[in-house]
Amino acid sequence: MNCNEKEIEIKKSLIVMIFIALSIIAFFISMGNGAVKITPKEIINALFIDKSTMNYQIIWNVRLPRTIVAALVGACLAISGAILQGVMRNPLAGPNIIGVSSGAGLTTLLLLIVFPNYYYLAPAGSFVGALLATLLIYFLSWSEGASPSRLILAGVAVSSLLGAGNNIIMSFYPDKVSGVVDFMVGGLSAIAWKHVNMIFPYAILGMTLAFLVSNKLNILMLGDEVAVGLGLNVEKTRFLFIVISSLLSGAAVSVVGLLGFVGLLVPHMTRLFIGSDYRYLLPASIFTGSATLMFCDTLSRVMFAPKEIPVGIIMSALGAPFFLYLLRRKKDY
């Protein structure tokens, strides 16, 4: 490794550290803002020193689980989007764009309606739905291989079809699905510790798998012919990454609903700072995704206080202009 390569790695490591610092700042902002203002000193005191105060009850029972879930969901969707953009070599790819999130949402709604007492199985059900949606997209786009462009087009069609299925379920069983509006746009208003327990193991598993095979994604980014020349089984590797992406996006959808644009906006924004080396892009996306969703969730609570709006509305307001910006760009990667 020459000096120039070392300097680049040091620079990228520093950028990751900056993103970590931003996520810590976002954590304290999220914990401290709401109906009751709590300073960082009071947060630390309530969590680690004096547990008899009202601040402790507010933090422990309301804000901490919500903030943790926001961080995990942001990280899951960001990594899922980063993987899909790399696999398909298209900056417009994302779990909500190609139908993965819609598949996860459909199975989650069915599970909540048919087996309401087994809500804790929602992440597993969401993963199954996301994976089945992915298999359908693969089947529809397959023609002597699954090219990135065909995957995107098939994904848009499947997303529309599954979205119609979600709307049908909402129409027929509105009384059996609580928080319908929050689920359709993505919301964190009713988050509790049970949701932390639901998403945490799936998030950790998905992130770990993504890190273990991140080098293969770097090879896949070189193009199919080059990857085959380097001894990589392109189709199996591409499918493996889409399975990992389905696991992450399914876990996120199961607890917050159809939250859009995180998987599109965050990885692309992170790539502008750190490049496309997935050894750095994936860990950076964890913290940018976490920070972004924690910031947006805080905005959703304070913008129209004492009323609260779903965080998905904030993300759509940010994500839609960014999506149009990507469409207008002539240069792709």
Radius of gyration of CA atoms, rounded to a whole number: 20 Å
Shape: globular
Question: From the helix content, strand content and strand pairing, which structural class follows?
Answer: mainly alpha
| Terminal Cα span | 26 Å
Strand elements, count: 0
Number of helices: 14
Notes on the protein architecture:
This protein has 333 residues and is mostly helical. Helix content is 76%, strand content 0%. The protein contains 14 helices and no strands. The two termini are 26 Å apart. 47% of the residues are buried.
How is the secondary structure organized here?
Blueprint: H1 3-32, H2 40-48, H3 54-88, H4 100-114, H5 122-141, H6 148-172, H7 180-185, H8 193-212, H9 214-220, H10 224-229, H11 234-256, H12 262-274, H13 278-302, H14 311-328
Helix pairs in contact: 1-3, 1-13, 2-3, 3-8, 3-11, 3-12, 3-13, 4-5, 4-6, 4-11, 5-6, 5-11, 8-11, 12-13, 13-14
A few lines on this structure:
The chain is mostly helical.
Salient structural properties:
333 residues, mainly alpha
